[in-house]
Design goal:
The complex is a heterodimer of chains A (409) and B (166). Chain A has 409 residues and is an alpha/beta fold. Chain A is 30% helix and 19% strand. A seven-stranded mixed sheet of chain B has the order 4-3-2-1-5-6-7, covered by helices on one side. The N and C termini of chain B lie far apart (39 Å). The chains are: A alpha/beta (409), B alpha/beta (166).
């Protein structure tokens, strides 16, 4: 019987063939935890599970990205506790302040590989699907148990297939595809299921991460792009099989796809940018594991080159990782953004969780390249967050209102 | 008797506990009990009583993996959560913490502020005027985790994961 990518990976990890709907105990290849939840995970491991050691210090990754650098005395203290624990455990994959957001970092470091089962203490751990790994977010207790035992359980998910055809027009990109799919599937359309994104072999790994991270916003357990056309080498057993069962198929024609915008305050509140009307913004925020990649900064720089951000608009750029920032520094992308008026932050999650580095005040409107526009997400519950691509972000920064990249290019 | 708290659909974890109120952001982690629905429904934390029931619309708990969202609800003693569909991470977190969650749509059948009796074992809600509403029984492996008091006590007792052969 043909299997979906998730069924193939979970069958390998379970040591027996499994199908959608079955509950399976699986071996995990990697457990990721970040600074925000590591203190609670460590506490559960030590005090509730009575586990002194992680099951394999080479397969637990710890990343300081959520409040990086520390914004308060408490967060500084908690991060130091995590650093001491990492040292005691002999954890090899530890990435401290400035290295970037866990998801791109583990891909750049080659730690996340095709065919792996990766569980992370961050809901956007679906990100690892960008290299064809089964990545899934979990809470502190599940992560503590996985870190202590090297195992977890899953109900093997059904798979929702998003099939793209054609090629993006200029000014349209992976974010628009992901938001278009969210518009179709709605916020619960893939709950308990996995999403597979087909027809996107031409995208880079980090562009694929845009699709994979947004998979959680339609409720998915994992969001996988078939691992072809990327530098990472997939195991032989992992490939799209003809005849695999998909619970639902969503078709998106990229040739006619328009820039998409998600309006406050639900991710699936998506429309074509052209139907939005005039929305003035105070802040444009380019960053996150969804769209803070080198590709995003470069696309924004192409639009902003030689121009100035509109008066009264603040443009924040928070690179997703140090590698992305380094590349953008070396080829002049960051210089272009700075010259246009951008403020640059430390690689990490930035204001995506509303804790530091550009939180929003009451009444402010933000065009955000991230993944959530929930009320209060980036600070004040009285701020309004619109989600769109980095190209829309750049066009908006120039215009002062949400704008189509085509109109400013 | 337990009070019914009605919530709408797509209630996300930022509405349950905003990231700004995460335990790592608090001087005293026990203060988390002050913050369930702090911005979405500010009167909740101060008036909810142990055993009260949340009856919500579709996709309850969507968004973040933050276990401190259901933990805050547990700290104030929420007795059960009933919704037509739960976001998966929230559902696992609630299960792991031993909070009973039932998959049913009761938003049209109960009123906010209504007093009811919840019988977890029988899977039944009885309203003050005697109406009985059945709660669908959760799958066996989930019930085992709840009755153990959460995934950690379950794992410590059985040395295995739910659904795994003994």
């Amino acid at each position: 019987m043909a299997q979906t990518l998730s069924e193939q990976i979970l069958s390998q990890a379970a040591g027996k063939p499994v199908r959608a709907g079955e509950v399976a105990t699986v071996a995990v290849d990697l457990v990721m935890m970040h600074d925000s939840l590591s203190p609670s995970i460590i506490k559960i491991m030590e005090q509730e599970l009575g586990a002194e050691r992680v099951w394999d210090p080479e397969r637990v990754a710890v990343v300081v990205d959520h409040v990086a650098p520390a914004a308060t005395v408490q967060t500084a203290e908690k991060q130091n506790e995590v650093r001491r624990w990492v040292q005691r455990q002999g954890i090899t994959h530890f990435y401290d302040v400035g290295r970037g957001i866990s998801h791109p970092v583990l891909v750049e470091e080659g730690v996340a590989q095709p065919g792996m089962v990766i569980v992370g203490s961050d809901s956007h751990s679906t990100a690892y699907g960008c290299v064809g790994a089964f990545g899934s977010g979990m809470g502190s207790t599940d992560i503590a148990l996985a870190a202590a035992t090297g195992r977890t359980w899953f109900r093997v998910p059904e798979t929702v297939l998003v099939r793209a055809t054609g090629r993006f027009r200029p000014g349209v990109n992976a974010k628009d595809l992901a938001l278009r799919a969210a518009r179709e599937l709605r916020a619960d359309g893939a709950t308990y299921a996995a999403v597979e994104w087909h027809g996107v072999e031409f995208l880079t790994v980090m562009e694929r991460m845009t699709l994979a991270t947004l998979s959680i916003e339609v409720g998915a357990k994992a969001g996988l792009v078939p691992p072809v056309g990327i530098p990472q080498v997939a195991p032989e057993w992992l490939r799209v099989e003809e005849g695999a069962t998909y619970s639902r198929v969503v078709e998106v024609d990229l040739d006619t796809l328009q820039p998409q915008v998600s309006a406050p305050s639900f991710v699936d509140n998506v429309s074509d940018l052209g139907d939005l009307g005039r929305v003035a913004v105070d802040v444009v925020y380019l960053g996150t594991c969804t769209n803070g990649h080198y590709e995003d900064m470069a696309a924004a720089a192409r639009i902003l080159a030689g121009k100035q951000v509109a008066p009264g608009v603040r443009l924040m750029v928070v690179p997703a990782s140090r590698d992305a920032m380094l590349r953008a520094t070396q080829d002049g992308t960051l210089a272009t953004l700075l010259a246009a008026g951008a403020a640059i932050g430390t690689p990490g999650c930035g204001a995506c969780i509303g804790r530091h580095m550009g939180v929003l005040g009451p009444g402010e409107t933000c065009l955000f390249t991230g993944n959530r526009n929930f009320r209060g997400r980036m600070g004040s519950p009285e701020a309004n967050i619109y989600l769109a691509s980095a190209e829309v972000a750049a066009a908006t920064a120039l215009a002062g209102y949400i704008a189509d990249p085509q109109d400013v290019l | 008797m337990a009070r019914v708290w009605i919530f709408g659909q797509d209630i996300n974890t930022d509405q349950i506990v905003p990231g700004r109120y995460a335990p790592i952001m608090l001087k005293n982690e026990d203060d988390l009990r002050l913050y369930p629905f702090v911005e979405h429904r500010p009167e909740f934390a101060s008036t909810v009583r142990s055993g009260d029931i949340i009856v919500a619309g579709n996709n309850f708990g969507c968004g973040s993996s933050r276990e401190y969202a259901p933990l805050a609800l547990k700290m104030v003693g929420v007795g059960a959560i009933i919704a037509p569909l739960f976001a998966r991470i929230f559902f696992r977190n609630a299960l792991n913490l031993g909070i009973p969650c039932f998959t049913a749509d009761l938003t049209g059948q109960l009123a906010d502020g209504e007093q009811v009796d919840l019988n977890l074992e029988a899977g039944r809600i009885t309203s003050a005027d005697g109406r009985e509403l059945a709660l669908p029984p959760p799958p066996t492996f989930l019930r085992e985790v709840w009755s153990a008091g959460g995934i950690v006590p379950f794992y410590r007792q059985h040395g295995r994961f739910p659904g795994e052969a003994a």
